[in-house]
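TICKET: design request
STATUS: open
ATTACHED STRUCTURE:
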């Protein structure tokens, strides 16, 4: 199942993008990357993405702006936000805007794996409920 899931990693720090790519690729996820929110929207318009992992503080378009665009235009995509340890206001605001999960940096590789899996299963559950409601 994981090899059919495509995750878009959005972070202006190349080292973080590479780290997440390495961790999640090893688990069988397909990975795309973007350097900021503007680049992420370009990727979203070109490729099928299931989940987004986005930093909140980035140049050009920050994580909040990206979150608003995704929820408005790509509502079937799950969003995980990353934020600095102790930044509870950012987490609260992002969850209110529709983020599905969050993780605080720094994190351990098993933590990001658990958060991604939880977000993905939540997304599948919501999609199943939506398809049953249509029938």
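STATUS: resolved
RESOLUTION: sequence designed for all positions
ATTACHED SEQUENCE:
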């Amino acid at each position: 199942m994981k090899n059919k899931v495509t995750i878009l990693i959005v972070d202006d720090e190349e080292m973080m993008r590479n780290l997440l790519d390495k961790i999640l690729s090893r688990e069988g996820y397909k990975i795309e990357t973007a350097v900021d929110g503007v680049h992420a929207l370009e990727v979203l318009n070109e490729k099928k993405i299931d989940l987004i992992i986005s930093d909140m503080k980035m140049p050009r378009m920050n994580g909040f702006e990206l979150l608003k665009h995704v929820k408005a235009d790509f509502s079937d995509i799950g969003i995980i936000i990353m934020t600095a340890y102790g930044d509870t206001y950012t987490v609260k605001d992002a969850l209110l805007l529709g983020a599905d999960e969050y993780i605080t940096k720094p994190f351990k590789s098993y933590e990001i794996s658990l958060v991604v899996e939880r977000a993905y299963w939540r997304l599948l559950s919501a999609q199943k409920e939506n398809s049953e409601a249509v029938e």
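CLOSING REMARK: Helices lie at 14-26, 37-46, 63-73, 88-97, 109-134. The first strand starts at residue 6 and ends at 10.
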